[in-house]
Protein backbone atom coordinates (compact mmCIF):
# COMPACT_ATOMS: atom_id res chain seq x y z
CA UNK A 1 0.00 0.00 0.00
CA UNK A 2 2.81 2.37 0.90
CA UNK A 3 4.71 1.46 -2.27
CA UNK A 4 1.62 2.18 -4.36
CA UNK A 5 1.16 5.54 -2.64
CA UNK A 6 4.81 6.45 -3.22
CA UNK A 7 4.43 5.42 -6.85
CA UNK A 8 1.64 7.99 -7.20
CA UNK A 9 3.52 10.76 -5.42
CA UNK A 10 7.08 10.25 -6.71
CA UNK A 11 6.36 11.49 -10.28
CA UNK A 12 5.43 14.88 -8.83
CA UNK A 13 9.06 15.30 -7.78
CA UNK A 14 10.71 13.72 -10.83
CA UNK A 15 8.54 14.92 -13.72
CA UNK A 16 8.90 18.54 -14.83
CA UNK A 17 5.50 18.43 -16.53
CA UNK A 18 3.66 17.06 -13.48
CA UNK A 19 5.49 19.44 -11.16
CA UNK A 20 4.38 22.35 -13.34
CA UNK A 21 0.79 21.09 -13.37
CA UNK A 22 0.83 20.58 -9.60
CA UNK A 23 2.00 24.17 -9.14
CA UNK A 24 -0.86 25.46 -11.25
CA UNK A 25 -3.32 23.30 -9.31
CA UNK A 26 -2.06 24.77 -6.03
CA UNK A 27 -2.63 28.27 -7.42
CA UNK A 28 -6.22 27.35 -8.26
CA UNK A 29 -6.51 25.92 -4.75
CA UNK A 30 -5.30 29.22 -3.32
CA UNK A 31 -7.98 30.98 -5.37
CA UNK A 32 -10.62 28.66 -3.86
CA UNK A 33 -9.82 30.11 -0.44
CA UNK A 34 -11.81 33.21 -1.46
CA UNK A 35 -15.23 31.52 -1.68
CA UNK A 36 -14.38 29.45 1.41
CA UNK A 37 -13.64 32.63 3.35
CA UNK A 38 -16.84 34.22 2.14
CA UNK A 39 -18.80 31.13 3.13
CA UNK A 40 -17.52 31.33 6.68
CA UNK A 41 -17.77 35.11 6.92
CA UNK A 42 -20.67 37.49 7.29
CA UNK A 43 -20.76 37.71 3.48
CA UNK A 44 -21.80 34.07 3.00
CA UNK A 45 -24.94 35.16 1.11
CA UNK A 46 -22.85 36.80 -1.61
CA UNK A 47 -22.22 33.54 -3.43
CA UNK A 48 -25.37 32.18 -5.02
CA UNK A 49 -23.83 30.42 -8.03
CA UNK A 50 -26.24 27.69 -9.19
CA UNK A 51 -24.65 24.24 -9.22
CA UNK A 52 -26.64 23.29 -12.34
CA UNK A 53 -24.64 25.78 -14.39
CA UNK A 54 -21.41 24.09 -13.40
CA UNK A 55 -22.83 20.66 -14.22
CA UNK A 56 -23.64 21.71 -17.77
CA UNK A 57 -20.22 23.31 -18.17
CA UNK A 58 -18.48 20.13 -16.99
CA UNK A 59 -20.26 18.13 -19.71
CA UNK A 60 -19.10 20.53 -22.43
CA UNK A 61 -15.56 20.58 -21.03
CA UNK A 62 -15.43 16.78 -20.93
CA UNK A 63 -16.24 16.57 -24.63
CA UNK A 64 -13.63 19.20 -25.48
CA UNK A 65 -10.88 17.54 -23.45
CA UNK A 66 -11.61 14.09 -24.88
CA UNK A 67 -11.29 15.45 -28.43
CA UNK A 68 -8.22 17.51 -27.53
CA UNK A 69 -6.42 14.62 -25.85
CA UNK A 70 -7.28 12.05 -28.53
CA UNK A 71 -6.18 14.37 -31.33
CA UNK A 72 -2.88 15.20 -29.63
CA UNK A 73 -2.10 11.56 -28.84
CA UNK A 74 -2.92 10.45 -32.38
CA UNK A 75 -0.25 12.88 -33.62
CA UNK A 76 2.28 11.45 -31.14
CA UNK A 77 1.42 7.89 -32.12
CA UNK A 78 1.63 8.64 -35.84
CA UNK A 79 5.08 10.15 -35.28
CA UNK A 80 6.14 6.99 -33.44
CA UNK A 81 4.86 4.82 -36.29
CA UNK A 82 6.81 6.92 -38.80
CA UNK A 83 10.02 6.58 -36.84
CA UNK A 84 9.42 2.85 -36.40
CA UNK A 85 9.04 2.65 -40.17
CA UNK A 86 12.30 4.58 -40.53
CA UNK A 87 14.10 2.00 -38.37
CA UNK A 88 12.80 -0.78 -40.62
CA UNK A 89 13.53 1.13 -43.85
CA UNK A 90 17.16 1.78 -42.88
CA UNK A 91 17.68 -1.81 -41.78
CA UNK A 92 16.09 -3.20 -44.94
CA UNK A 93 18.09 -0.85 -47.15
CA UNK A 94 21.31 -1.99 -45.49
CA UNK A 95 20.35 -5.66 -45.84
CA UNK A 96 19.42 -5.27 -49.51
CA UNK A 97 22.56 -3.33 -50.40
CA UNK A 98 24.80 -5.95 -48.79
CA UNK A 99 22.80 -8.87 -50.23
CA UNK A 100 22.81 -7.57 -53.81
CA UNK A 101 26.54 -6.97 -53.53
CA UNK A 102 26.54 -4.40 -56.32
CA UNK A 103 28.73 -1.85 -54.53
CA UNK A 104 32.47 -1.60 -54.18
CA UNK A 105 33.91 -1.69 -50.63
CA UNK A 106 34.40 2.07 -50.73
CA UNK A 107 30.87 2.66 -51.97
CA UNK A 108 29.49 0.27 -49.36
CA UNK A 109 31.21 2.21 -46.60
CA UNK A 110 29.82 5.49 -47.90
CA UNK A 111 26.35 3.96 -48.25
CA UNK A 112 26.52 2.80 -44.63
CA UNK A 113 27.55 6.27 -43.45
CA UNK A 114 24.72 7.87 -45.43
CA UNK A 115 22.09 5.45 -44.13
CA UNK A 116 22.99 5.96 -40.47
CA UNK A 117 23.26 9.72 -41.05
CA UNK A 118 19.73 10.03 -42.45
CA UNK A 119 17.82 9.61 -39.13
CA UNK A 120 20.30 11.93 -37.40
CA UNK A 121 19.79 14.55 -40.10
CA UNK A 122 16.01 14.12 -39.87
CA UNK A 123 16.14 14.56 -36.09
CA UNK A 124 18.12 17.78 -36.43
CA UNK A 125 15.84 18.96 -39.22
CA UNK A 126 12.69 18.43 -37.15
CA UNK A 127 14.17 20.17 -34.13
CA UNK A 128 15.90 22.95 -36.09
CA UNK A 129 18.80 22.28 -33.76
CA UNK A 130 22.07 20.39 -34.10
CA UNK A 131 25.26 20.27 -32.07
CA UNK A 132 28.52 21.25 -33.75
CA UNK A 133 29.95 17.72 -33.90
CA UNK A 134 26.86 16.30 -35.57
CA UNK A 135 26.62 19.24 -37.97
CA UNK A 136 30.26 18.76 -39.03
CA UNK A 137 29.71 15.04 -39.59
CA UNK A 138 26.66 15.64 -41.75
CA UNK A 139 28.34 18.40 -43.74
CA UNK A 140 31.31 16.14 -44.43
CA UNK A 141 28.91 13.76 -46.18
CA UNK A 142 26.70 16.10 -48.21
CA UNK A 143 28.02 19.65 -47.80
CA UNK A 144 25.72 22.45 -46.65
CA UNK A 145 22.31 22.00 -48.31
CA UNK A 146 19.18 23.62 -46.90
CA UNK A 147 17.45 20.25 -46.55
CA UNK A 148 20.05 17.75 -45.34
CA UNK A 149 17.79 14.64 -45.20
CA UNK A 150 16.84 15.20 -48.85
CA UNK A 151 20.48 15.64 -49.80
CA UNK A 152 21.40 12.35 -48.11
CA UNK A 153 18.58 10.54 -49.92
CA UNK A 154 19.77 12.08 -53.20
CA UNK A 155 23.31 10.79 -52.57
CA UNK A 156 21.96 7.28 -51.96
CA UNK A 157 19.89 7.47 -55.13
CA UNK A 158 22.96 8.63 -57.08
CA UNK A 159 24.99 5.67 -55.82
CA UNK A 160 22.27 3.19 -56.75
CA UNK A 161 21.79 4.67 -60.24
CA UNK A 162 25.54 4.70 -60.77
CA UNK A 163 25.61 0.98 -59.93
CA UNK A 164 22.78 0.40 -62.42
CA UNK A 165 24.50 2.34 -65.22
CA UNK A 166 27.77 0.47 -64.65
CA UNK A 167 25.97 -2.88 -64.80
CA UNK A 168 26.66 -3.92 -61.20
CA UNK A 169 22.92 -4.22 -60.51
CA UNK A 170 20.05 -4.96 -62.89
CA UNK A 171 16.60 -3.42 -63.22
CA UNK A 172 14.95 -5.80 -60.75
CA UNK A 173 17.56 -5.04 -58.11
CA UNK A 174 17.12 -1.31 -58.75
CA UNK A 175 13.38 -1.60 -58.08
CA UNK A 176 14.05 -3.50 -54.86
CA UNK A 177 16.37 -0.74 -53.61
CA UNK A 178 14.11 2.05 -54.87
CA UNK A 179 11.23 0.81 -52.69
CA UNK A 180 13.30 1.43 -49.54
CA UNK A 181 14.84 4.69 -50.74
CA UNK A 182 11.37 6.01 -51.52
CA UNK A 183 10.27 5.34 -47.94
CA UNK A 184 12.98 7.61 -46.54
CA UNK A 185 11.52 10.78 -48.02
CA UNK A 186 7.94 9.60 -47.46
CA UNK A 187 8.73 9.30 -43.74
CA UNK A 188 10.48 12.67 -43.76
CA UNK A 189 7.43 14.28 -45.37
CA UNK A 190 5.09 12.67 -42.84
CA UNK A 191 7.14 14.01 -39.93
CA UNK A 192 7.21 17.49 -41.47
CA UNK A 193 3.43 17.40 -41.81
CA UNK A 194 3.04 16.63 -38.09
CA UNK A 195 5.57 19.31 -37.17
CA UNK A 196 4.11 22.12 -39.28
CA UNK A 197 0.39 21.36 -39.00
CA UNK A 198 -0.61 21.77 -35.38
CA UNK A 199 -4.14 21.68 -34.02
CA UNK A 200 -6.01 24.83 -35.06
CA UNK A 201 -4.97 27.72 -32.81
CA UNK A 202 -8.54 28.92 -32.29
CA UNK A 203 -9.56 25.49 -31.02
CA UNK A 204 -6.64 25.34 -28.59
CA UNK A 205 -7.52 28.79 -27.22
CA UNK A 206 -11.19 27.81 -26.98
CA UNK A 207 -10.33 24.67 -24.97
CA UNK A 208 -8.14 26.68 -22.58
CA UNK A 209 -10.88 29.26 -22.09
CA UNK A 210 -13.33 26.52 -21.22
CA UNK A 211 -10.89 25.01 -18.70
CA UNK A 212 -10.34 28.45 -17.18
CA UNK A 213 -14.09 29.14 -16.80
CA UNK A 214 -14.65 25.68 -15.34
CA UNK A 215 -11.90 26.01 -12.72
CA UNK A 216 -12.86 29.61 -11.99
CA UNK A 217 -16.42 28.62 -11.16
CA UNK A 218 -15.64 25.27 -9.51
CA UNK A 219 -14.97 26.40 -5.91
CA UNK A 220 -18.04 28.67 -5.97
CA UNK A 221 -20.22 25.71 -6.95
CA UNK A 222 -18.69 23.39 -4.32
CA UNK A 223 -18.38 25.61 -1.29
CA UNK A 224 -22.03 25.45 -0.15
CA UNK A 225 -21.98 21.66 0.09
CA UNK A 226 -18.35 20.89 0.91
CA UNK A 227 -17.24 23.90 2.97
CA UNK A 228 -13.53 23.61 3.83
CA UNK A 229 -13.26 20.42 1.75
CA UNK A 230 -13.67 22.64 -1.29
CA UNK A 231 -9.92 23.33 -1.09
CA UNK A 232 -8.62 19.75 -1.64
CA UNK A 233 -11.40 18.93 -4.10
CA UNK A 234 -10.53 22.02 -6.16
CA UNK A 235 -6.81 21.21 -6.15
CA UNK A 236 -7.39 17.60 -7.23
CA UNK A 237 -9.82 18.56 -9.99
CA UNK A 238 -7.55 21.35 -11.23
CA UNK A 239 -4.57 18.98 -11.26
CA UNK A 240 -6.28 16.55 -13.61
CA UNK A 241 -7.97 19.16 -15.78
CA UNK A 242 -4.81 21.21 -16.25
CA UNK A 243 -2.78 18.03 -16.59
CA UNK A 244 -4.85 16.83 -19.54
CA UNK A 245 -4.47 20.17 -21.30
CA UNK A 246 -0.74 20.45 -20.56
CA UNK A 247 0.07 16.89 -21.63
CA UNK A 248 -1.97 17.36 -24.82
CA UNK A 249 0.02 20.53 -25.54
CA UNK A 250 3.29 18.61 -25.16
CA UNK A 251 2.50 15.42 -27.06
CA UNK A 252 1.06 17.16 -30.12
CA UNK A 253 4.64 18.25 -30.96
CA UNK A 254 6.53 14.98 -30.36
CA UNK A 255 9.96 15.80 -31.82
CA UNK A 256 11.38 18.09 -29.13
CA UNK A 257 13.24 17.57 -25.87
CA UNK A 258 10.34 17.28 -23.41
CA UNK A 259 10.05 14.10 -21.35
CA UNK A 260 6.86 13.18 -23.21
CA UNK A 261 8.46 13.56 -26.64
CA UNK A 262 9.85 10.69 -28.68
CA UNK A 263 13.30 9.48 -27.71
CA UNK A 264 14.82 10.25 -31.10
CA UNK A 265 18.39 9.82 -29.83
CA UNK A 266 17.65 6.23 -28.84
CA UNK A 267 15.98 5.47 -32.19
CA UNK A 268 18.93 6.96 -34.08
CA UNK A 269 21.29 4.88 -31.95
CA UNK A 270 19.32 1.72 -32.74
CA UNK A 271 19.52 2.39 -36.47
CA UNK A 272 23.24 3.18 -36.26
CA UNK A 273 24.06 -0.03 -34.36
CA UNK A 274 22.00 -2.44 -36.49
CA UNK A 275 22.96 -0.98 -39.88
CA UNK A 276 26.66 -0.97 -39.03
CA UNK A 277 26.39 -4.53 -37.81
CA UNK A 278 24.87 -5.55 -41.15
CA UNK A 279 27.66 -3.95 -43.17
CA UNK A 280 30.40 -5.22 -40.84
CA UNK A 281 29.08 -8.78 -41.10
CA UNK A 282 29.03 -8.48 -44.89
CA UNK A 283 32.60 -7.12 -44.96
CA UNK A 284 33.83 -10.06 -42.86
CA UNK A 285 32.04 -12.55 -45.10
CA UNK A 286 33.69 -11.15 -48.20
Automatic annotation (TrEMBL):
Transmembrane segments: 20-38, 50-67, 205-222, 228-248
Subcellular location: Cell membrane
Pfam families per UniProt: Bestrophin_2
Keywords: Cell membrane, Ion transport, Membrane, Transmembrane, Transmembrane helix, Transport
Membrane among keywords: yes
Protein name: Bestrophin, RFP-TM, chloride channel
GO molecular-function terms, A-Z: chloride channel activity
Chief place where the protein resides: membrane
Species of the source: Rosistilla carotiformis
Keyword Cytoplasm among record annotations: no
Annotated membrane topology: Multi-pass membrane protein
Family that this chain belongs to: Belongs to the anion channel-forming bestrophin (TC 1.A.46) family.
GO CC list: plasma membrane
Amino acid sequence: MIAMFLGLIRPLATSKTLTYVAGLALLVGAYSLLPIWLEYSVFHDVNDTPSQFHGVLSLVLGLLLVFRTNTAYSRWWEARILWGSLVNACRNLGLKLTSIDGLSPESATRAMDLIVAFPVALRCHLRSDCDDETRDRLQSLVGKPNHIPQAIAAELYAMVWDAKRSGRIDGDELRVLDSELLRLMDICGGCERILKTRIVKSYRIFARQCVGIFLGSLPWALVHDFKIWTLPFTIITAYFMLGLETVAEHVETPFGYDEDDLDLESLCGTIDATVRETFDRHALAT
